[in-house]
Write a structure and sequence with these properties.
The protein is 76% helix and 0% strand. It is an all-alpha fold and 157 residues long. The chain has one domain.
Length: 157
């Protein structure tokens, strides 16, 4: 391995660290946005905490688990595509594009979540956090999140 190869490797590792940190922070932000738009604390619904504060498998919301998982994957796909598509650019430009598209993906997922809630019967935000099995509306919310990811990813590419 030459010194140029080593320098390239170290630069690539540095870029990877920067992208990983930025993408990780954006995924944390995406989680907290979903937490803000659903009633109660999302972590409580995922862990299954009952009204007495005890963890119980019967208090877990499998719908919240599905929606949260797909929401995070959806946003990660947007980040992946932004990094992949802009990786040959200057780090500053590529990082700015990754952050911009990442924030746009979170915003569009949030807007579409409210649109789906407006056009479907019931209170989607409450339904997807109710304890018990996965509800059909959770599948719809998850499909919309993946659709948003596909649309944003296509616009990046």
């Amino acid at each position: 391995m030459t010194s140029t190869d080593l320098a390239d490797l170290l630069a690539a590792l540095g870029y990877a660290a920067v992208y990983a940190l930025a993408a990780g922070l954006l995924l944390v932000a995406a989680y907290y946005v979903l937490d803000l738009i659903t009633p109660g604390h999302l972590g409580t619904h995922l862990r299954g905490v009952d009204s007495d504060g005890n963890e119980s498998v019967h208090a877990q919301s499998k719908s919240a688990g599905l929606v949260t998982s797909v929401w995070l994957v959806s946003n990660a796909l947007v980040l992946f595509t932004a990094i992949w598509r802009n990786g040959d650019s200057d780090l500053g430009v590529a990082l700015a594009a990754t952050i911009a598209f990442g924030l746009f993906g979170i915003l569009l997922n949030t807007v579409m979540f409210f649109v789906i809630e407006a056009i479907t019967p019931g209170d989607l935000r409450s339904i997807v956090t109710q304890p018990g099995p996965v509800r059909p509306l959770a599948w719809v919310a998850s499909a919309i999140a993946l659709s948003v990811a596909g649309i944003v990813c296509a616009s990046i590419a």
